[in-house]
Amino acid sequence: MDGIDLMATAMRAAQARLDVSASNLANVSSDGFQKHVAHVALTGSGLVASSVRDDAAPPLRHTGRALDIAVAGTGAFFVRDAAGNTFAERSASLERNARGELIDTRGRTLVGTHGAIVASADATIDTEGVVRDGGSIVGRIAARGASLESGFLAGTTVDGMHEMVDVLAAQRAFETAQKTLSALDEERLKDADDVARVKA
Amino acid sequence: MNRALYAAATGMAAQQQNLDVIADNLANADVAGFKSAQATFEAIGGDESLGTASAGVHRIFAQGKLMKTGGAFDVAIDGNGFFRVERDGREAYTRAGSFSRAADGTLRNPDGWTLHGVHIPANAVDVTVAPNGRVTATLDTHVGVSVGQIRLASFVAPEKLRPLGSALFTATSESGVPRNVVAGAEHQARIAFGMLEKSNVSTIESMMAILAAQRAYEANAKGVQAADEMLRIANNLHRS
Fold first, then answer.
1. Quick one: which of A30, A155, A26, A36 has its CA closest to B219?
2. How many CA atoms lie within 13 A of B240 on its CB side?
3. Residues B96, B169: contact at Cβ < 8 Å?
4. Is B157 left (phi over 0), alpha (psi -120 to 50) or beta?
5. For residues B71 and A172, what is the distance between their CA atoms, to the nearest angstrom?
6. Which A residues 118-177 touch B at CB under 8 Å?
7. Rounded CA gap, B158 and B77, in Å?
8. CB neighbours (10 Å) of residue B126?
């Protein structure tokens, strides 16, 4: 692999870094979103970028609404869509469907330890996921290793300032690689000319 | 495909929509019975990092503060439920209780929607509404004559009601059918007379949200710029 090829991989890696930062920035208002982090590594085939989700727990945002729930720390609770697919969630603003079952804002049913949970709008949820309505227990949210906070929603781990710096860094890295590539290209052109002159 | 360019563009579109919703909340901050809305967003593309998309706008039916107005027929709901109003044979539901007496003895809101279940005779004075919704008046020398009963409706899923105006809603198949609420009963709503329910919009929170949305929009616009600039640089690789 020569210098030009290497610089081309560097440009591609910088582009991948920007892809990740741009998507993080786009999700600065997405509740529960965990940012992705780009890693660039030097391998036998030049610079290669990969991205992984940062597992840090999103900060909780106070809403005061009893049916807003968020996972504190690690863990998840589950919602099920009409087709029966189950999704793990960290945060949901619960509502009720026409049958009185607790659902998330996209209409997916909250999974309880004994199926869907039917509760009134005045229901309360404790940290163990026990749903109480008018003093009696009406269900328990099936959660995995999670302590639930009622009255909170999960925010996002995206830090706008940090991402802006990353955008700038990616752009400059791209530019540097391009300039180096152009310089190498010019050298090569000069070499070609010199060779031609010697021959002549 | 330039993923960064499109991801940043989805971010700009999301903040635009966010701002639309906040602006609508602020515009209706002084409308009695108005319920604020909130736009939510979610990541798209899973681990592919493709940007964001709307996860819907949902309405927040939290109680607004009750304020004393002294209006002769102003009523507010303290708790869950809606006033049943009708116009041209259509039923709708509202928490805006600013009514006035019409010539035919009915109580109407400023848009001409009639409050269900109340008919006030022409000679009635001293009309009052009890917490349980019973409307009484003094007719000639008779004190405390019942002239109607305000009935409240509640819905299993009020978030799924369809808005007809800033504070008026109709039922949908998802909201469920209206169910009668006995006002004043234990754990049920009470009717407050001479009061109106303010909107549940927090002006300060909305202003903060506008600032945040504006900055987020700006950051995403910079993302678009950076992606574009990099495309330009890449194009400059080839010099003739």
1. A26
2. 0
3. no
4. beta
5. 65
6. 121-122, 134, 160, 163-164, 167-168, 170-171, 174-175
7. 15
8. 11
- The nearest CA of chain A is from the CA of B216 a distance in Å of 7
CB A115 within 8 A of CB A145: no
pLDDT at B94: 96
**The complex's ipTM?**
0.81
**Cα–Cα dist B234/B219, whole Å:** 23
Residues counted in chain B: 240
Contact status of B160 with chain A (Cβ, < 8 Å): yes
Global pTM reads 0.84
Per-residue model confidence as pLDDT tens digits over A89-101? 889 999 888 888 9
Q: How many CB pairs under 8 A join A and B?
A: 157
Question: Dihedral through CA B178, CA B179, CA B180, CA B186, nearest 10?
Answer: -130
B236 contacts chain A (CB < 8 A) = yes
Residue B143 has a CB neighbour count (10 Å cut-off) of: 10
Distance, CA of A28 to CA of B14 (rounded, Å): 10
Q: Which whole number is the average pLDDT over B203-225?
A: 95
C-alpha dihedral over A155, A156, A158, A159, to 10 degrees? Answer: 10
**Are the CB atoms for A178 and A11 separated by under 8 Å?**
yes
